[in-house]
Amino acid sequence: MNINNEHSTLTPRESFLMGLLNRIIKEYKTLIDLTRRHKPFKIVELIELSNIPGETKFAIQLTNKNSVFILSAAEIINNKYNLNDFNAFHAEMIRQASMGNLANYLNLSDKESVFHVTSKKYDREKQQHVFTIASKDQVELVRTAAEIAKDKQLLAGMSFRDIYDIGYTQGSESIVKEKTALMLAKQEK
Predict the structure, then answer these.
(1) Which of 66, 90, 124, 146 is the most buried if burial means most Cβ atoms within 10 Å?
(2) Is pTM, for the whole model, over 0.70?
(3) Dihedral angle, C-alpha 56, 111, 130, 102, nearest 10 °
(4) How many domains does the chain divide into?
């Protein structure tokens, strides 16, 4: 069968439906391609930190979806979620939480903070929040949430509350970035 001959014999309604179907298939393929590039799960929030093995609770987002669910480390392990479906850092967080060592792994304690957030502002040019961080020596650093999240030494010297704020901001910004990338990918195809 020749496809061109088939299209010429279609009614206008059938042609419209075929065009619509082709467009849906193309968008679906774009979505699948984009999803395959990223790990399907990510931790977007630490709901409850516990030193009891497996009791730490996480808010987990399905990548590129607005679906968020709350699971403890024990539930993730016992329900046989594949830790390879998380990025390496989040998978290690789950492993450590399942042993009750997450606070030590993240180097969280009640010691006095060396660094603290003094301001948080939205930078329209970067389209990101920018944090001003002061040290005990009154040295100020200006960084985005993503930059701070990569600096383990800086995080180790901060209070849990500041780390939480930075992590929440980074998670929110990554969700917006993913949605924007998905919309752009759809427009390109």
Answers:
(1) 90
(2) no
(3) -20
(4) 2
